[in-house]
Amino acid sequence: MKFGTKAIHAGQEPDPTTGAIMTPIYQTSTYVQEAPGQHKGYAYARGKNPTRVALEKCLAALENAKHGLCFSSGMGAADAVIKLLRPGDEVIATDDLYGGTYRMFTKVFANYGIVFHFIDMHDLDLVKSKINSKTKMLWLETPTNPMMKIIDIQELVAIAKINSLITLVDNTFASPYLQNPLDMGADIAMHSATKYLGGHSDVVMGALMTNNDSLYEQLAFIANSCGATPGPMDSFLVLRGLKTLHLRMKAHCSNGAAVAKFLKSHPKVGKVYWPGFEDHPNHLVAKKQMKDFGGMISFTLKSDSFEEASKLAQNLEVFSLAESLGGVESLVGHPASMTHASIPREERIKTGLVDSLLRLSVGVEDEEDLINDLKQALEAI
Ligand SMILES: *Cc1c(COP(=O)(O)O)cnc(C)c1O
Q: Is 195 a catalytic residue?
């Protein structure tokens, strides 16, 4: 089956008792057993719930995976993956990492003796030089946030395979519509389903997909043992959101392209970071591993004024000033004062995250309204 058909049907059957076409929200904590230990595969809802099982099968299908596992948030999913490791084990991660992941690694798991190296993964020799007998995992994120760098998944998977490392790709920004890391040899695809998968800014959820039976068994054991599993209502919301994922992604991509081109032509705009531009340093890698270029864009102002960027964000009327991404509505964020405020100014400027950098999550509204909104907001600064 093709992607759109899987997004609507995978893992889902009409309800056997009523024929309801939508998977019911099985709002239950436990299941009646016929005799002690004799049940239909469902014993207690932390471990398994039918609404969640339907979602997990659908998500697995979208990443061409054998197994899917859902968590109560993207961070819950990431947490389970690191719990595969032991004290002393080492992880090599992308330097331009989602802030919450960086925080969890450095402020939580570093205390448990796990060692993290944050490096520029475009430099393959640097990656190789960090690998030693304790290294267990490569943690990739591509496209990165907010600088929209693209990392070559296949090149890193090749290094990981030689050294028997687990490769995880946080695929949140691309969504399975644009990029399938498992097809490129990665071991685990991770998602914050809060973003494009749910797609309507009404639910927080995380997911892991894998083809590796042993990893799946271990992760399912951790999920049930540690308990960061999602409830049936949230599972239903993501299952519902997935039915339009392919339609939404097409609209995000075409609006994203239009907005990126508009910004690039505007006299007050400095740099525009969007992998669809031929002069983007990783454009060819993006073209190779992604189906299209997505709706995430970052840009700076020529003045590089913190005040002007902040004013521009407030001037916008269709774009809302908020954290998060991937919903139907367009959002604008100012990383220097919002998501990346805790990084010292000198550090963030070195990575290109200057005072005026704004990040857009381009939604699926009408293109003309989005461009007119940006036009008026830029004129008024
Ligand atoms: C949002 C996000 C996460 C964390 O997911 P939550 O659902 O907010 O816990 C992880 N990685 C990336 C790239 C994200 O954008």
A: yes
DSSP assignment of 246-313 equals HHHHHHHHHHHHHHHHHHHH-TTEEEEE-TTSTTSTTHHHHHHH-SS--SEEEEEETT--HHHHHHHH
> Probe ligand 1: pick from 151, 194, 237, 361, max atoms within 8 Å of CB?
194
The candidate with the shortest Cα–Cα distance to 358, out of 320, 376, 350, is 320
Predicted TM-score of the model (pTM) = 0.97
**3-242 sits in which CATH class?**
alpha beta
Structure confidence by residue, pLDDT tens digits, 331-361: 999 998 888 887 789 888 988 999 999 999 9
CATH 3.40.640.10 in the chain: give the residue spans.
3-242
Q: Where in the chain is the domain with CATH 3.90.1150.10?
A: 246-379
Point out the ligand 1 atom lying closest to the alpha carbon of residue 206. 7
- 246-379 fold: Aspartate Aminotransferase, domain 1 (3.90.1150)
| CB distance 348 to 355 below 8 Å | no
User: 143 CB less than 6 Å from ligand 1?
Assistant: no
Ligand 1: does its nearest atom lie under 6 Å from the Cβ of 171? no
